[in-house]
Specification:
By secondary structure, the protein is an all-alpha fold. The protein is 98% helix and 0% strand. It contains one helix and no strands. The model has no long low-confidence stretch (mean pLDDT 93).
C-alpha cells in the first residue's frame, strides 16, 4: 500500500514537474533555433564582408593606378608647355630675323 502511494506521489510529482518544465524546454528549443539562425546569418555576413574586402582591395589598386596615370599625364602636359614656350621663343626670333631681313632690303 505504501509502495502504491509512493508511486502515485512520484507519478503526480513527475506530471507536475513535466508541466512546469514544459515551457522551459520549449524556450530552450526556441533559443537553439534562434542560435542556429544567428549562426547562419553570421556566416552570410562574413562572406559578404570578405567579398567587400576583396572589392575594396581591387578599388584601391585601381585608385593607385589612376593616381599614377594622372601624374604621368601632368608630367606630359608640363613637357608640352615647355616645348610650346620653346616654340614661341624660336618663332619670336624668326619674326625678328624676318623683320631684320626686310629692313635690310
Amino acid at each position: 500500500m505504501e509502495k502504491e502511494i509512493l508511486e502515485a506521489i512520484g507519478k503526480l510529482l513527475d506530471e507536475k514537474l513535466d508541466e512546469k518544465l514544459s515551457p522551459i524546454w520549449k524556450e530552450i528549443r526556441d533559443l537553439k533555433t534562434d542560435t542556429e539562425l544567428i549562426k547562419a546569418q553570421q556566416k552570410e555576413l562574413e562572406s559578404l564582408l570578405n567579398m567587400l574586402l576583396d572589392k575594396s582591395e581591387i578599388n584601391r589598386a585601381e585608385h593607385n593606378k589612376l593616381t599614377h596615370d594622372m601624374a604621368q599625364v601632368l608630367e606630359t602636359v608640363n613637357n608640352i608647355r615647355r616645348d610650346l614656350t620653346a616654340v614661341e621663343i624660336v618663332t619670336a626670333r624668326n619674326m625678328e630675323n624676318i623683320a631684320h631681313l626686310k629692313a635690310i632690303k
